[in-house]
Specification:
Blueprint lengths: L4 H26 L1 E8 L4 E2 L3 E5 L1 E3 L5 H6 L5 E8 L5 E6 L9 E8 L6 E2 L4 E3 L5 H4 L4 E6 L5 E7 L8 H9 L1
Antiparallel strand pairs: 1-4, 1-10, 2-3, 3-9, 5-6, 5-7, 7-8, 10-11
């Protein structure tokens, strides 16, 4: 039995990984697109290479309540969207049913607890694409009905996908 333990653990690990991938792919395929304005933060790491730190402007209306709370890790926000699906404002907590222009968005706090992030805090990209990603003004997220989000792309001020990776491929040809 002991000789099979590594295989059992490997199998369980693969099941967990593939189920997580399946859930994210399901959100990408069936989720609703929303756009969150980005705050301009753009560091460079010697170890990681080029990356962009994503600061999301969620326009939280009851932000005084957040600052009074010493520690928060996960919050579900009710977000209000405009006609282009851009987040106008958000509120901590929610009541059902939601209006047509409202969605749920699950967030977690950053490493130091000062900001809420719906998805990743940083975005790694290939070297030499910083000129393209500097144009990013919005993050396009896919959100399911429960508020789970996946980062789909970064867009310009007109909500057009930047397509930076394809631009690099065209430059290399």
């Amino acid at each position: 039995m002991r000789k099979y333990l590594p295989f059992i653990f490997a199998f369980i690990s693969l099941v967990v990984i593939y189920s997580n991938v399946f859930l994210k792919e399901n959100i990408l395929n069936q989720g609703t697109s929303i756009y969150v304005e980005l705050e301009p933060v753009d560091p460079r790491s010697l170890i990681q290479g080029d990356y962009m730190r994503l600061g999301y402007q969620l326009n939280i209306q009851d932000s005084q309540n957040i600052s009074k709370q010493k520690k928060f890790y996960k919050k579900t926000l009710k977000i209000v969207l405009d006609d282009k699906h851009v987040v106008k404002e958000s509120f901590i907590g929610y009541s059902l049913p939601l209006q047509e222009n409202e969605r749920l968005l699950k967030t977690k706090s950053s490493q130091f607890g000062e900001n809420l992030y719906p998805v990743s805090e940083s975005f790694l990209f290939a070297e030499g694409l910083e000129y393209c990603y500097n144009q990013a003004k919005f993050a396009q997220l896919k959100v399911d009905k429960k508020g789970n989000a996946v980062l789909e792309s970064l867009t310009d001020k007109n909500l057009n996908d930047l397509n930076c990776e394809s631009q690099k491929r065209n430059l290399n040809l």
